[in-house]
Each structure stands twice: as C-alpha cells, then as structure tokens.
Description:
Layout: E1 5-7, H1 20-34, E2 39-41, H2 54-70, H3 84-106, H4 110-115, H5 118-135, H6 162-177, H7 180-196, H8 202-210, H9 215-226
Parallel strand pairs: 1-2
Helix pairs in contact: 1-2, 7-8, 7-9
Amino acid sequence: xxxxxxxxxxxxxxxxxxxxxxxxxxxxxxxxxxxxxxxxxxxxxxxxxxxxxxxxxxxxxxxxxxxxxxxxxxxxxxxxxxxxxxxxxxxxxxxxxxxxxxxxxxxxxxxxxxxxxxxxxxxxxxxxxxxxxxxxxxxxxxxxxxxxxxxxxxxxxxxxxxxxxxxxxxxxxxxxxxxxxxxxxxxxxxxxxxxxxxxxxxxxxxxxxxxxxxxxxxxxxxxxxxxxxxxxxx
Length: 234
C-alpha cells in the first residue's frame, strides 16, 4: 500500500562536464523504477548551473520515456524480487532507520532533537566525511576529481530582469483589484487561529488564498505569532 515519489539526486549533479549528468540521472531513474516508485522526477543536466533550458528538460523527459518504453522494466512488478543482495541492503537500511528513531525518541522527539541540533550535526558530519572521501579520491566523481578534461561551457538559461518587472506589475494589479477588506479579515482569522495553538489552521489558510491573499502576506501574519526560526548554533 506504500505510495511514494522519487526525484533523482540533485546533489549528485556536477558543474564540471555537465553532460555526464545525463548518465547519472538515467541510472538513478532506473534505480527508482526498479524500487517500485509510483511517481518520478528526473533532474535536468544543467540544474547545477541554472534553471533548466528547454533542451535539457526534454532530455530529462526522454530519459523517463526510454526507461518506460525501451528497457522492458515495466514487464514485471518486482524485477529484483528474491534478490539476497537487495533484501540484505533493505534490511540493513531498515535497521539503521529504527536506530535513528530510537535515538530521536530518547531525545524527546524530532522537534526536541532539532532544538538540540542533532539532525543538523548528523547532516554536517556526513557532508564532511563525503567531501573528505572525494578529496582523498576514495570516492571518484567523474570529471571532478578524476577523468578530468576541458570542455566548452554549455548553454544555460538566462532570465533577464523584465520577468521580475512583469511579476511586480501583476502583483500591483492584483492588490488593487481584489477585495482588500476581505483579505484583512481572513488574515485576522488566520492570526487568531495561530494564536489559539489548537485550531486547525488549514481552513483559514484556504480562505486567505481564495480571496487572493499572497503567500508573503500569509507568512508575515504567521510570523507575528510564531516569530522567525533561527537555526541553533552547533
């Protein structure tokens, strides 16, 4: 009954030799399909440099279509069914997850763990260890720390300032034509719901959206109640 979405790993994309990212994304996408994902997003080859160009986005789409229609992987529900290797990896991952859950429970739950800086510290340590492995060449990243070659830069998507100017003009028009009295009323209701600490705020948020209250206005209202989150120094 599990339903899950998969996105290929943006952190695996490299700015060096970006065309290599096509191969990385294809392998990751195939892995997701073999793992039984119901929904899949394939990153574009240039996302480490800029927003995707239409060309790069089309390659990402074609990657999914080739997997779906040319590999034959969809002919069976569970291609790796019964694999000792895969089942062992799954069991080890599950065991590791439960060990983390036990640690979090001992800290008083996830919110308490965040306040203590535990997950942030774990992420930082993992990032440091990964980077050290790359720098020592214990982990090879093709085009980054080995198999390096000079390549001409690829074309990236450039968005000029006119886009922002058009969006600002649309926002000004929206604010001048909507029912601003209704907007203030719904924001006041949202604020009171947030102050209560026990009321489901989603209906109040939806009422704000229905009268064209902006995301920024909604967030500003919630900040008056909750303040702004500051990451604990660890």
